[in-house]
Amino acid sequence: MQGKAWSKYLLSLPPLTYLLVFFAVPTFIMLFASFRYAGEYGGLAPWYLHEHGRLSLELTLENWQRLVGTDIYLRLFAKSISYAVITTVLCLVMAFPLALVIARSGHRYRDLLLLLVILPFWSNFLVRIYAWMIIFSPVGALTRMINALLDLVGAGPITLMYSPTAVIVCLVYVHLPFMVLPLYANLEKHDPALLDAAQDLGAGQWRRFWLITWPLALPGITAGSILVFIPVLGMFAVPDLLGGTTGIMIGNVIKQQFMESRDWPFGSVLSMVLTATAVAVVLLGVRLGQGRKGRG
Amino acid sequence: MARKSLLLRLSAALVYLFLYLPLLIVVLFSFNDSRLNAEWVGFTWKWYGKLFHNKQMLTAAMNSLIIATVSAIVATLLGTLAGIAMHQYRLRLLPLLVLAPIAMPEILMGVSLLVLFIMMNMTLGLVSVMLAHITFSIGFVALAVQARMSHMDPALIEAARDLGATPWRSFREITLPLLLPGILAGGLMAFTLSIDDFVITFFTAGVGSSTLPLQIYSMVKIAVTPEVNAVSTLLMLLTLVVIILTSRLSPTFFGGK
């Protein structure tokens, strides 16, 4: 057909242009900025100088050297990755029974149960963090109850607020639906006849779970893990409000470089490492998915 | 056959409790007659009253509504085009650009747009926030529209074409009306995403153009006060209304069949 070629461009060109300008270009600008000098008053210095009729490039590897020159930032990346791993595992542990119950419920209740998982996710992100600020507050009922109990056994009072524990609990809370949804989508497709057959053949509850449900659920687990892991890795609001000084993550340092110390080149270096990590995780997930498809 | 042991049901119930208890506490304390969010003292509306006399809060709410409305409209237009294009043609770059912003940590989009806007000599404000919100909303609208398209029977279009309708006419009279629920659902989703966004707004708003989430952030940074509970409760109510509307329009969007 003749009309096809131009309608293809007519349709795809406007969104494509928009996303190129406001997503792809900024990403490359950041990559470029990571090789530039910081401006005298923050921001970026000019990347070329025109002096005495000669043009000189003002680019440097300094910012990247700063990243690997000390172990502060690499440690912080490692710490953020460990928070993301812990959060992902906890989300999986909590999401699995929930997704199973929903998938094995009657059709009439499924949508409702699912909606109940999504609903809190639609309340404002800051409100959900704020809720935990109330719960973990030193004057809050939870802290006072724990300390009253600790007092009985003679242990000192503890604070829940501003700790890695507070950060991780809130990270799990915020990201749980990202794990439940893909898991449910997967579990819903399982054929119950498989479990019946295994039972007839004498497999117990746990054997049925580990030999049938779990392996079949792996694609859902992978998808959910990526959806949780990536946003957690770049998080700054949760550690900012609940982490104090001990609970900070790489996102906090990136925010600091761009907003407070205004060292954009170094902020760009950290952002590029975060981008590369996120891309690597997505590719790994896709790879795992394809690997399974190939074998199945 | 339903296989749900008591243990399984119990742990699912506990997870639901974990999901709802914190929000319940926020709502409850918004009616509590005490400055501290610590124990129940008595019922009051006064935090809501204070809210409606808080000039900064009202300005922030207005900004949020303006930004959300404009960015939802633009993102709906662009996202619908993208969704249709992605369904009809085998494209490489567009799906990548549509999905990547959703898949990357938000902070990256925030800082890179900050750098772009400053390099373009733009003053940060309502416009920069709108441009940013459109960027992350396009993908969600495109996915909603694409999902709707894949449920559509291609025979309908073929029939229209066989009966002599031009491509434009068959699009206008068949495709568009059938897509409308998906488009509206995507648009409402873009609206709530914009109203709720904190991270990307934080980097692109500059000084003097606060939105509700930014306002909540700066209040929470200083102290935990019941006024925050009140504005949070109202925000939840608003989102709930939009969500109910969306699910009415497009049940498929929420994972249900």
CA distance, first residue to last residue of chain B: 20 Å
Kindly provide the name of the CATH class of the domain at 56-86 and 93-99 and 107-118 and 127-251 in chain B: Mainly Alpha
CATH topology of the domain at 56-86 and 93-99 and 107-118 and 127-251 in chain B: MetI-like fold
**Can you tell me the overall shape of chain B?**
globular
Number of helices of chain B: 11
Helix/strand structural class of chain A: mainly alpha
Assembly context of the chains? heterodimer
What is the structural class of chain B?
mainly alpha
Rg of chain B from C-alpha positions?
22 Å
First-last Cα distance of chain A: 39 Å
Low-pLDDT sequence parts of chain B: none
Share of residues in helices of chain B: over 70%
Instruction: Estimate what percentage of residues of chain B fall within beta strands.
Output: under 5%
Question: What is the assigned CATH homologous superfamily of chain A?
Answer: MetI-like
What brief labels describe this structure?
heterodimer, A: MetI-like fold, two-stranded antiparallel ribbon, B: 257 residues, MetI-like fold, 11 helices, 76% helix, globular
What does this structure look like?
The complex is a heterodimer of chains A (296) and B (257). By secondary structure, chain A is mostly helical. Chain A contains twelve helices and two strands. Chain A has a single domain, classed as MetI-like fold. Chain A has helices spanning 3-33, 62-69, 72-103, 107-121, 125-136, 141-152, 164-187, 192-200, 205-233, 237-242, 250-260, 264-295, and strands at 48-51, 54-57. In chain A, β1 (48-51) and β2 (54-57) form a beta hairpin. Chain A starts with a helix and ends with a helix. In chain B, α1 (6-29) packs across α11 (226-249) and α3 packs antiparallel against α8. Chain B has a domain at 56-86 and 93-99 and 107-118 and 127-251: MetI-like fold (Orthogonal Bundle). Chain B has helices at 6-29, 46-52, 55-88, 93-103, 106-119, 126-150, 154-162, 167-196, 199-204, 212-222, 226-249. Classes of the chains: A mainly alpha (296), B mainly alpha (257). Chains A and B meet through α1, α3, α4, α5 and α7 of A and α1, α3, α4, α5 and α6 of B.
